[in-house]
Amino acid sequence: MTYKIDYRDGTVLEWSLTDDGTTVTRNDSYTPTIYVSVHGGDLTEAAAYLRNHPQVEATQQVEEQVGFRHDPTTVLRVDVADLDAVTNVANEVRGWGSPGDYRLYNVDFSREYRYCLEAGVDPTPTQRPSVLRLAVDEAELASPPITEIKVGDKLLSGVPDDVLTGVREQIQEDDPDVLQVSSSELIPRLFEQADQYDISEFALGRLPGYQTLAGESTYESYGQVGHSPARYNVPGRVIIDESNTFFWDQTNLDGCLDLVSRSHKPLQELAWSSIGNVLTAIQIREARSRGVLVPWHSWRHEQFKTMRQLHAADRGGFTFTPEVGLHEDVHELDFSSLFPNIIVTRNVSPDKIRCDCHADRDDVPGLGYSICDERGYLPDVLEPLIADRDAIKEELEDTKDPDRQAALEGQSNAIKWILVSCFGYQGFSNAKFGRIECHEAINAFAREILLDSKAVFEANGWRVVHGIVDSIWVTPVDGAEQTPLDELAAQITEDVGIRLEYEAEYDWIAFVPRADSDAGALTKYFGKVAGVDEYKYRGIECRQRSTPTYIEDAQRELIEALDETRDPEAVCERLRTMIDRLERGAIDPTRLVVNNRVSKSLDEYTQNTRNVAALKRADGKGLTRRPGQNVSYVVVDDEKSSRDRVVLKSEEPSEYDGPFYRDQLIQAAESILSPIGWHERRIERYLSSHTECSLESFS
Q1: Omega of the bond leading into 145 within 30 degrees of 0 (cis)
Q2: How far is Cα 173 from Cα 209, in angstroms, rounded to an integer?
Q3: Which residues are paired to 501 by β-bridges?
Q4: Do 392 and 324 have their domain in common?
Q5: CB–CB of 115/121 below 8 Å?
Q6: What's the whole-number mean pLDDT along residues 633-643?
Q7: Strand-pair partners of 326
Q8: DSSP 3-state assignment of 329?
């Protein structure tokens, strides 16, 4: 079955994996299709013009639904000459008449996905694809020619033409279906080097050459700046760029292939796609199965709301402020896939929320929204995902085969990420089929569920110490009789219609205060799981991406010390040992690397921060960092404001700024001790009152 699709010179190449190897099928007749609906112009006139357009192959009036809430209507089907013509023709039509007179559909599909959708091709391979990894050091990539590269398990080094010959021969020998590259830039660099050294038969694909699919770009999502590297293609082989693949990184090959089968986005496209992009592809398949077209630009208006509805709707999921402190005998319970299950069990769907046929009903608690009795499309999209993940989790509990376990975990994680995004995507302004009223309704149901659950626990001898959206933490009330938690979970599950699962028992759990007040931080806590040698960490430094490894390990060790002693002074003694080793220069600088994301280009910064110093050093070495990319460095002299303030990780630093990292250690220790009342000043006061060094610090 097809697993890779190439578009070359107007011909589509379908590559398939079989028992006998790889086969290719050519399709010379494929033409992409878009649709036009008219809301103020003339459909016949539009058809006559487009029929003679040089980039249009054919036009036809057909009956289609332009939305889930619409009956079939006459629209214009336009078969354009090739993929490059799709956007050209669509932009031309969009400019006709007044805004909204001519609306377009099925325009902005990614190219391989479009072919699968229109040609009815399932890109899920029937054979497991073979993978070969190509990796090169970043500094080597920045200073051509490439003289050292790792191909699979082999390290190839030497003069440039010998390296290229070795790469070509290894690829020919392994004949991989997937090339996993450390950076997409490796592809053009190798071909440029082949041209420079006159190696005419160099190839990475199953046919000569490569294509540039998209240039690099910077984007912003939910306040975070991201960077998308350039994307390249070689014929007959899937390219996986390690620097630009969420699903490959968060799951594995099995997880990616599971999503390929659900979305019909081929493996290469799925690898670089975002969660929302894959969810949209799954939704588009469902829409097309129902005869609904996919709008190019969303023009859904938000329905009228009263001031009371606006006030009630403008709220998120419910949270209970955690009780700051260290609590013993705590139990955590979670609702299984709460938001997706609310969608399925309450029929929350863009095509059914606030329906005209039940406008007098108050189905959504506190908002006065109605929900149609007729099944919506979104529950039909999500219910198979929920059911399949439950089945996968059940099989995981039973299987002992490590290979099968890895496959199931990959599939489970892949589905989890899709389910996680389905709620937020309803409120995303550019979502193809989202609707803000769905977003508001899901939150309203979630608030009611959590509040009702809290009441049940409190009526049965349990005190809620924290609760956030779909999770709740309880501890026994002293002197009260407790109903067993499994009975309460079963009762709530039956009442709510969504499974409440017992997640964990903690010997103790500590909720951390906010940095600017004594109130509890909603997502910062840590605790000791009962019955096993395991701790849970959320939101504190050891879970933050920028934290150096040494600080991360130190914080975990301090938590163990707190568990062993329940004594802040004993924790500070352990901290003193760490500080002693740090100040003596006994820590390997590679364990002190700071990893930070770049939020803007170098010339846009106005302050001489550590990041700016690192960016200046990187730029001077040809390792330019763009917004959205990461920069990794060790702080060597924090008193300076120049580029000498830091040393890049790639420069293999041999020293570090002890006082800077001491402050980092103190901050990590404060997160551990602040729940029991020890903040930075008290920690420093204790450390300064005891000056002797322990023998352990010299080990």
Answers
A1: yes
A2: 19
A3: 334
A4: yes
A5: yes
A6: 95
A7: 510
A8: strand
Specify the pLDDT at position 7. 93
Shared domain for 185 and 84, answered yes or no, is: no
DSSP state of 356: G
* 49 and 332 Cβ atoms separated by less than 8 Å: no
In a 13 Å sphere around the CA of 52, the CA atoms on its Cβ side amount to 4
- If asked whether residues 648 and 505 sit together in one domain, one would say no
Joined together, the tokens standing for residue 569 give: 């002074």
* Burial call 495-528: b when 16+ CB within 10 Å, e when fewer: ebebbbeeebbbebbbbbbeeeeeebbbebbbbb
Alpha-carbon distance 152 to 195, whole Å?
24
Domain boundary among 107, 139, 167: 107
Cα 171 to chain centroid distance, Å, stands at 31
For 216-257, write each residue's pLDDT tens digit.
877 766 566 777 889 999 999 999 999 899 999 999 999 999
Nearest-5° Cα angle at 89, 84 to 91: 105
Read off the tokens for 183: 């950076």
637 and 678 part of one domain = no
- Categorise residue 324: left if φ over 0, alpha if ψ from -120 to 50, beta otherwise: beta
Look up residue 404 and give its two tokens.
Answer: 């099968």
Q: Which two tokens stand for residue 503?
A: 């997640």
326, 177: one domain: no
Residue pair 660/647 in contact by the 8 Å Cβ criterion: no
Residue with tokens 């909603």: 522
pLDDT score, position 222: 59
Work out the number of other CB atoms within 10 angstroms of the CB of residue 141: 17
pTM over 0.85: yes
Q: Say if CB 212 and CB 174 are below 8 A apart.
A: no
Q: What is the mean pLDDT of residues 428-445?
A: 85
Burial 377-387 (b: 16+ CB within 10 A, else e): bbbebbbebbe
What letters, b where the CB count within 10 A reaches 16 and e where it falls short, cover 69-108?
Answer: eeeeeebbbbbbbebebbeebbeebbebeeeebbbbbbbe
Per this entry, what is the length of the chain?
A: 699
Please check whether residue 575 is in contact with residue 687, taking contact to mean a CB–CB distance below 8 angstroms.
Answer: yes
